[in-house]
Amino acid sequence: MKVRSSLKSLKSRHRDCKLVRRKGRIYVINKTDPRFKAKQG
């Protein structure tokens, strides 16, 4: 999982990427291609 300062750019890499807020952190999750996982904060 990558830790990035900007997740908006990562969201556009794959059409299945979703931005999710959990416990004050922002995550990019992708069910079909897990290598795009990322978190911020």
3D structure, described in words:
With 41 residues, this protein is mostly beta strands. The protein has one domain (2-36). It contains one helix and four strands. The protein has one helix spanning 8-11; strands at 2-3, 18-22, 25-29, 38-40. A four-stranded mixed sheet has the order 1-4-3-2, with no helix packed on it. The two termini are 13 Å apart.
Keywords, separated by commas or semicolons:
4-stranded mixed beta sheet, single chain, mainly beta, 41 residues
Short description:
By secondary structure, the chain is mostly beta strands.
Helix fraction?
A: under 10%
Shape: globular
Strand order of the largest sheet: 1-4-3-2
Q: For the terminal residues, how far apart are their CA atoms? A: 13 Å
Number of domains: 1
Show the helix and strand layout.
Layout: E1 2-3, H1 8-11, E2 18-22, E3 25-29, E4 38-40
Parallel strand pairs: 1-4
Antiparallel strand pairs: 2-3, 3-4
